[in-house]
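Lab notebook, bench 4. Still working through the backlog of constructs that have no structural model yet. Next entry is a single chain of 141 residues. Request: give me the structure tokens for it.
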Amino acid sequence: MPAGGLEIVVPNDKTNLAPYRVLHFLALAVIVVRIIPKDWAGLNTRLLRPLVLCGQRSLEVFCVGIFLSFVGHFILEMYSDRLPAQIGVSLGGLILMTCVASYRTWSRKLDAPPPTQGVRIAKNPEQVVPVHKDVGFPLAD
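Model written out:
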């Protein structure tokens, strides 16, 4: 292997984002997108609901994840870096990020404008006819 090619592969630590790690992630993403259809019923199960919520609120989850990575690093450096502590910090981070995604989804529903009433706006204000939202046409008196 040429020396220049070896330098691309050599940084085998998680601190540096090596090109082979990006290729691995992209290959995995392509495989998942090809295998799992958008309307797969499994995405609506209780088990995968937190994952779907985190995907829908990915920006908020990403920002909180950056903050939590510093907190987790601090906890592991100050107290313990043994396996149970690492598992606890990871699970705590996942739970907190899922809570943030759930909260943002809930708060978006509160901030949404109220649904419109089924009223057609006529050119003449005296000709307003209420429309039932389930039927879609004027109701007879």
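Notes after review: The helical segments are 3-9, 19-35, 49-56, 58-78, 83-111. Residues 50-112 form one domain. Flag for follow-up if needed.
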